[in-house]
Amino acid sequence: MNDLTSDFIARLHGAAGPLRIRGGGSKDFYGNALEGEIVDTRDHAGIIAYEPTELVVTARAGTPLAELEAALAEHGQMLAFEPPYFGAGPAAETSTATIGGAVAAGLSGPRRAAAGAVRDYVLGVKLLDGEGHVLRFGGQVMKNVAGYDVSRLIAGSLGTLGLILDVSLKVLPRPAAAATLRFDLAQAEALATMNQWGGKPLPISASAWHDGMLTVRLSGAAAGVAEAAARLGGETLDDAAAARFWAALRDQRAAFFAGAEPLWRLALPTTAAPADLPGATLIEWGGGQRWLRSGAPAAQIRAVAAKLGGHATLFRGGDKSAGVFHPLPPALAALNARVRRALDAKGVFATGRR
Amino acid sequence: MPANHHYVPHPVSEDARSALLAELAAILPAEALRVDEEDTRPYECDGLTAYRQLPLAVALPADEAQVVAVLKACHRHCVPVVARGAGTGLSGGATPVTDGVVLSLAKFMRIIEIDAAARTARVQPGVRNLAISEAAAPYGLYYAPDPSSQLACTIGGNVAENSGGVHCLKYGLTVHNVLALRVALIDGAVLDIGTAAPDAPGYDLLALLIGSEGMLGVVLEATVKLTPKPQMAQVVMASFADVVHAADAVAAIIAAGIIPAGLEMMDREATAAVEDFVHAGYDLQAAAILLAESDGTPAEVAAEIAAMCALLEKAGASQLRISRDEAERLKFWAGRKAAFPAVGRITPDYLCMDGTIPRKHLARVLTRIAELSREYGLRCANVFHAGDGNLHPLIMFDANVPDELRCATEFGGRILELSVEVGGTITGEHGVGIEKVRQMCVQFSADELAAFHALKAAFDPQRLLNPGKAVPTPRHCSEYRLTGSARGLPPA
After folding, report:
1. Which DSSP letter does residue B109 get?
2. Are A28 and A124 within one domain?
3. What pLDDT is attached to residue B8?
4. Residue B488: predicted pLDDT
5. What pLDDT, on a 0 to 100 scale, did the predictor assign at position B182?
6. pLDDT classification of B485: cutoffs 50, 70, 90
């Protein structure tokens, strides 16, 4: 039995309320109000298995995200969902983010629209349940339909279903080439353009629109990137500036994210019209993820998001008292609660964060 | 052979049975309720034809209200329900249960909407996999997962099994390509799970439903992602004198940073069966052939094919052929896609296994399969989704020869246990169904199975949806573990 398991089991008996699983705390700002005694995963760290030709890495939950990504980069590979590095530091290397936290938070970065989300890359998890049992779901292989897909369910569950001990992820080769292009476009034109390009076999790996400027990243084989860049036109950003731009976007260090104004995340169909809401907007994922800096009432923001076919999350700042996540219809909320209890009957992980 | 000796049916009294049938007759028009044996016989099995069971009745509702009414009636009378698409599944996921109702979604064949700008399709569950791509083709789009049965299999069944295909290393499985589902629970509640917008709020119940083998809910509608069709594709076919070299070639391609659009391997036993059937031009001297596909722009494809050819040659390929045009590319693939029916032509019966293994263990696993083939005196052809480690051994037998089905089942069980032993899984894309329910006891602990049962109860506390499939009870596992392995067990 490792230290985290024995520590957790000891805490199970002593705790008065729910236990809150925490890695580096880089995403403490995210989710509903923080409650529960902390179980710290950071000492349960290290890569357990990594075989580049199998496209699979298995790591302990407390493994720093930066360490994991550095190990992958040595073999020309990456986490294609580009999990964000939050935290106070000026760069990814100083972030305290862990892989367990990245999976539990379920947040994906700029490549999400092209490559998929965290859950799309989760192949297996080893969990501690609320009774202290070690449970393994999924595995270290690409395709696995034995039993219900609990490992993907864990992605984004914010520590409310169980404690992730280890996680196995699919990894991908880093693209051989990349180019970043810029276009002067108003919001509606930019959305139309991104949807039109999205329907073409173009190697677009990220997009961002803000303040009249659409920035698009192409990634892939050298020939395909060069052809697409020539076809799309626009102004080319030099490689260093492009790398800085996408990293700052991924980790929310760009100027748009600074300041105390509440940060809302609207998840919408890419074809949804510009949201008629007060505040500055930054659009990613070809229109699927729209950030909004706005002090408008939550009810107004949620109503607009729902009308456009999506949902709104109070991502950072603001008043969390009414809950940060978009409310579910009653029947679906009840099913979510039953699923939570199915995996945690005693409420050990019932921090209410999700 | 009776479908499943593990499953203890819910006792359904004669009164409940006739009351239910009367209610179903009030819900459905006469042609949509099949009760007589001659009408229910066509539903007695799915693609796993060795296991057959007549249901109490077959319901063929035509709209959502009818599905909900049928589910509510069955729920009220505590009668099991087995949802069914095209019945092409290979693990017995759609095999009826005694005293249960088969709920066929065959009439739900409408493509509700193709939204070309959003690159999504909203379809009913009985729509065939390939029909989605055909409907999307005018917009330059297609639905990426392409199981071999894509001509016939339905999207509802694909959701139930999390189906893959030959292109899923690059383009993903069903779970990566379905955005939302409209689902009916056993009590008739209808829920919309997932959205066309990314990352729906709440837990990722979509992931839980996909691959749940019809045990959590009935799919009423699916919103799927459409993918822009690449400008072109080309395939290189490589011959190897040794499967180990073929496996090394696959690793070399991945290590070079290439994710081919398709990467498939077939052994000699498989190519011989296929070549007789479709004349795809396969090299019958080779111990194994590899098909590696590249897609993209002409320049991208040319560069990737050249890079793959160099790697294949270095790994010891004895012959390389590059498809010269689209017709030849399709011909090369036609053989692979017809592998199952081709084997079906040369043997009275076969079982198709579905283990996934870490690719590095391929040589060990294939060597062991060859030993087992000799031990049981049964031929076995291997087709392999080499890119993602998903192995389909096809065990050939004759059910009319006494004991051959038992031997084939035991042989298959040992292959699955071998897959688990090397760090893999008993099923990559076909599902557990009734076929592999015993091997679930090898792959999962009692605590893990208990978690599955608890999740099932969150959706279906009375265990009426597709009972006896996919997740064994602790009692069955303790019986199974006593014997230690697939050997020496009576037939399922």
Report:
1. -
2. yes
3. 63
4. 41
5. 98
6. low
A80 belongs to a structural domain: yes
A87 and A228 part of one domain: no
Taking residue A48's Cβ as centre, other Cβ atoms within 10 Å add up to 14
CA dihedral A267, B142, B134, B384 (to 10 degrees): -130
Whether A14 and chain B come into contact, CB under 8 Å, resolves to no
pLDDT at B73 over 50: yes
Asked if B259 lies within 8 A of A173 by C-beta distance, the reply is yes
Q: Does residue A336 lie within any of the structural domains?
A: no
Q: Which stretches within chain A are classed as H helix? A: 3-14, 65-74, 99-105, 112-115, 118-121, 150-154, 187-198, 222-232, 239-250, 298-307, 330-343
The answer to whether the Cβ–Cβ distance between A335 and B117 falls below 8 Å is: no
The reply to whether ipTM tops 0.85 is yes
Cβ <8 Å between B388 and A143: yes
The mean per-residue pLDDT over the stretch B1-17 comes to: 69
Q: Mean pLDDT of all residues in chain B?
A: 93
B104, B125, B153 — which closes off a domain?
A: B104
| Closest alpha carbon within chain A to B257 | A173
| Domains contained in chain B, number | 3
Nearest neighbour of A199 by CB, restricted to B141, B252, B423: B141
Determine, yes or no, domain membership for B159: yes
Is A353 contained in some domain? no
Q: Are the beta carbons of A333 and B211 separated by less than 8 Å? A: no
Percent of chain B with pLDDT over 70: 96
pLDDT of amino acid B190: 98
Kindly state whether residues B100 and B171 are assigned to the same domain.
Answer: no
Q: Looking at residue A304, which CATH number applies to its domain?
A: 3.30.70
**Nearest residue in B to A324, CA atom:** B201
pLDDT digits over A146-168, tens only? Answer: 999 999 999 999 999 999 999 99
Please state, in angstroms and as integers, the Cα–Cα distance from residue B115 to each residue in A275, B138, B223, B225, B492, following that order.
20, 12, 10, 10, 46
- A229 and A140 within one domain: no
Place of tokens 């789009």: B141
In whole angstroms, give the CA distance from residue A18 to residue B10: 38
The average pLDDT across A238-260 equals 96
Residues B174, B268 within the same domain:
no
Record the pTM.
0.96
Looking at CA atoms only, how far is residue B222 from chain A in angstroms? 16
Q: Is A299 on the interface with B (CB under 8 A)?
A: no
User: Is residue B263 included in any domain, yes or no?
Assistant: yes
Same structural domain for residues B170 and B90? no
pLDDT tens, B88-104? Answer: 999 999 999 999 999 99
**Crossing angle (nearest 10°) for helices B446-459 and A330-343:** 160
Domain that holds residue B301: 232-341
Residue type, A120: D
- A296 & A164 share domain: no
> Two tokens at B117?
């700008």
Whether pLDDT at A68 is above 70: yes
Distances (CA, A) of A168 to A56, A79, A126, A155: 7, 11, 9, 12
Q: Are residue A82 and residue A48 in the same domain, yes or no? A: yes
Q: Give the burial string for A212-230 (b: 16+ CB within 10 Å, else e).
A: eebbbbbbbbebbbbbbbe
What pLDDT, in 10s, does the model give residues B443-463? Answer: 999 999 999 999 999 999 999
Query: Chain B: nearest CA to A53, how far in angstroms?
Result: 5
Domain hosting residue A230, numbered range? 177-250
Q: Does residue A34 belong to the interface with chain B, where contact is any CB pair within 8 Å?
A: no
Q: Which residues of B touch A200 (CB under 8 A)?
A: 140, 228
* Residue A95 clears pLDDT 70, i.e. is over it: yes
Q: Which of B119, B173, B203 to mutate to test the interface with A (most CBs of A within 10 A)?
A: B203
A322 shares contact with chain B (CB less than 8 Å): no
Q: What is the pLDDT of residue B483?
A: 61
Task: Residue A76: list chain B partners with CB under 8 A.
Answer: 257
Which of B39, B72, B104 lies at the terminal end of a domain, its last residue?
B104
B253 shares its domain with B285:
yes
Integer-rounded Cα radius of gyration of chain B: 23
Is the pLDDT assigned to residue B365 strictly greater than 80?
yes
Residue B403 lies in a domain: no
